[in-house]
Amino acid sequence: MSTSGDGGTLALGLPMAVPAPGLPARVRIHEVGPRDGLQNEKATVPTEVKAEFIRRLADAGLTTIEATSFVHPRWVPQLADAEQLFPQVRDLPVDLPVLVPNTRGLERALALDATRVAVFASATESFAKANLNRTVDEALAMFEPVVRQAKDAGAHVRGYLSMCFGDPWEGQVAVEQVVRVCRALRDMGCDELSLGDTIGVATPGHVGRLLTALNEAGVPTGSLGVHFHDTYGQALANTLAALQHGVTTVDASAGGLGGCPYAKSATGNLATEDLVWMLRGLGIDTGVDLDRLVATSAWMAGQLGRPSPSRTLRALSHKEQ
Amino acid sequence: MSTSGDGGTLALGLPMAVPAPGLPARVRIHEVGPRDGLQNEKATVPTEVKAEFIRRLADAGLTTIEATSFVHPRWVPQLADAEQLFPQVRDLPVDLPVLVPNTRGLERALALDATRVAVFASATESFAKANLNRTVDEALAMFEPVVRQAKDAGAHVRGYLSMCFGDPWEGQVAVEQVVRVCRALRDMGCDELSLGDTIGVATPGHVGRLLTALNEAGVPTGSLGVHFHDTYGQALANTLAALQHGVTTVDASAGGLGGCPYAKSATGNLATEDLVWMLRGLGIDTGVDLDRLVATSAWMAGQLGRPSPSRTLRALSHKEQ
Q1: Nearest residue on chain B to A1, judged by CA atoms?
Q2: Interface test with A, best of B18, B129, B243 (most A CBs within 10 A)
Q3: Helix H or strand E encompassing B30
Q4: 3-class secondary-structure state, position A10
């Protein structure tokens, strides 16, 4: 038996593009690798490498690339170079949202001409307490002036909501609680929400129930993104369920970089390559060149000195050898 | 920020059980770890360890466990102990199918009172040639007397069909070709078919299209199992699509053991733990005790001296430490 003849999966026309009924024609990938990914890497990545990473991601066709975070350097030393990094990439012809934890962070971002910002809220009291040392409502009150000021400055605001499907301290999280916080974030002016499964415990029925409840509560599905972690291997199945419920914005991290350092079971974001593979197979347009993306993530894994957890990346990189 | 309070995900009631519309109430997992898994491990596993593995899987609630293969020892030396192993486990109160490549293998299996056997066909000419040195139709002609003799002996016959979604030599595989071979296997008497994505290139729309085509061709969905590989991370999303099309039999391998040694990009079967996690979250009954399954696969990984690729296994094992 021979293994010859395997001349590159993509070149062989695989995956075969076969649309499924009821799915969107196009999906916008919100690439979080440079921020959510690198924030959670032990290695300190030089600013020049970060800038190159973002440029390569844009060159691979990603149109929304979360670039960095204007959180206090004490909390996230990996992204302490936001002031140096952002001006190096801000003229790229892509959307470059940045995370802002508070008014001070927002002002730093706006001073550098950032036009898209994101705040980071929690669906649960335990994580709000752990992450922000506040109750959920106190955290919302803290974000309210940040969002207002950002909107006044003409910026697009994304609201991240963590622990939407389970919490490592509380266990189950009621759908009604998530809906309540989503409504509050919308009411204060967030243009877009990202539903985070921070510890990776969501399953497809749960995803569908939350999206249905949000729709019924008047939160437009078009304003929602999903942010799944692959801790239990469920991220892509959950993404499929979200697409079936009308979601068209999916967060992913090139090469599967990152996770959450404050939730020990959060072992990684959905890898952008695995997502692009599925969407390509479904005939859904993303604008991403998978070969270029794989080359970029393989290069970044080399910079970090560790292999990527992305299965598609490993399969396609293997082919190239 | 603290990571304390994480006292075991399952004990916290996670994943939350939220059914999705249109899915089956119960799924039968066809566990392939002891055969398809161990067949593809470099390490030679002692017969006693294999028997203990099967006993532990049965104790964890798996009801169909593919035990071994009666292929010639020269081709699969890892399973050369089929004659010694099978009598050690055949009295377990579970179904224990065995692979039989030809009449000789079938006779060996029947002599040991095997009541469920499986043959292994190919949907593509290239893989039939590589795996069996025959055309597809020549291979079907070879299996015909095997299936007839097995049925005459009262055995249940499963027909594996490999390369249903793509072939490493040919690239795309026409749905019509897969339907044709499935029809032939059904016509010769196979009770059940397992649709194999041997190189892991299936995506959910493709899964739906094939299942729809088989249904339209008169192959009952209830006679179909799906056998996905996680080479590109798609196995669980594809499984969800299959469940949505009425499939209730899913192949999986404890701890994600195995793959296919003759297709270099086939890096692993769907891990049973990741499947059970999703089904548990969907409120679908499998009869499997996830804690016991994780303990079994962790033990087996120790026997093999390598970590398991199952994400659920790693996440839950981490919790226990």
Answers
A1: B130
A2: B18
A3: strand B28-31
A4: coil
A306's CB contacts (< 8 A; 6+ apart) are none
Q: Give dist(CA B239, CA A304) in Å, integer.
A: 33
B230 is written with which tokens?
């996680």
**CATH of the domain spanning B31-320:** 3.20.20.70
What does the angle CA B208 – CA B63 – CA B196 come to, to the nearest 5 degrees?
30
User: How far is A228 from A235, CA to CA, in rounded Å?
Assistant: 5
Q: H or E element: which one contains B148? A: helix B136-152
Cα–Cα distance, A279 to B252 (Å, whole number): 24
What does the pLDDT average to over A161-166? 98
> Nearest-CA neighbor of B194 among B97, B264, B263, B283?
B97
The percentage of chain A sitting over the pLDDT mark of 70, rounded to a whole number, equals 94
What does the alpha-carbon distance between residue B113 and residue B153 come to, in Å, rounded to a whole number?
A: 10
Looking at CA atoms only, how far is residue A173 from chain B in angstroms? 9
Q: Which residues of A touch B202 (CB under 8 A)?
A: 15, 281
Taking an 8 Å cut-off on Cβ atoms, the answer to whether B265 and A233 are in contact is no
pLDDT per residue over A199-233, tens digit each? 999 999 999 999 999 999 999 999 999 999 999 99
- Scanning chain A, the segments in alpha helix (DSSP H) are 38-39, 47-59, 82-89, 103-111, 125-132, 136-152, 175-187, 204-216, 235-244, 272-281, 290-304, 311-320
pLDDT band at A176 (very low <50, low <70, confident <90, very high): very high
The Cα B199–Cα B234 span in angstroms is 11
Does the structure's ipTM exceed the value 0.85? Answer: yes
At A318 the pLDDT is 65
> Closest to B312 (Cβ–Cβ): which among A233, A237, A264?
A233
Count Cα neighbours of A65 within 13 Å in the Cβ-side half-sphere: 28
DSSP A182-251: HHHHHHTT-SEEEEEETTS---HHHHHHHHHHHHHTT--GGGEEEEEB-TTS-HHHHHHHHHHTT--EEE
Of all residues in chain B, what percent carry a pLDDT higher than 90?
86
**How confident is residue A42, by pLDDT bands cut at 50, 70 and 90?**
confident
Query: Containing H/E element for B144?
Result: helix B136-152
Residues on chain B touching A267 (C-beta within 8 angstroms): 311, 314-315
Residues of B serving a catalytic function are 260
Spatial contact of A85 and A103, defined as CB atoms under 8 Å apart:
no
User: Could you report the per-residue pLDDT of A264-311, keeping only the tens digit for each?
Assistant: 434 689 999 999 999 999 999 999 999 999 999 999 999 998 888 888
How many C-beta atoms surround the C-beta of residue A140 within 10 A?
22
Closest to B31 in 3D by CA, of B261, B211, B221, B273 = B273
> Is B27 within 8 Å of B284 (Cβ atoms)?
yes
Chain B residues inside the 8 Å CB shell of A208 = 18, 20-21
In angstroms, the CA B119 to CA B117 distance is: 7
Residue B276 is given by DSSP the state H
Cβ <8 Å between A12 and B170? yes
Reported confidence tier of residue B8, pLDDT bands at 50, 70, 90: confident
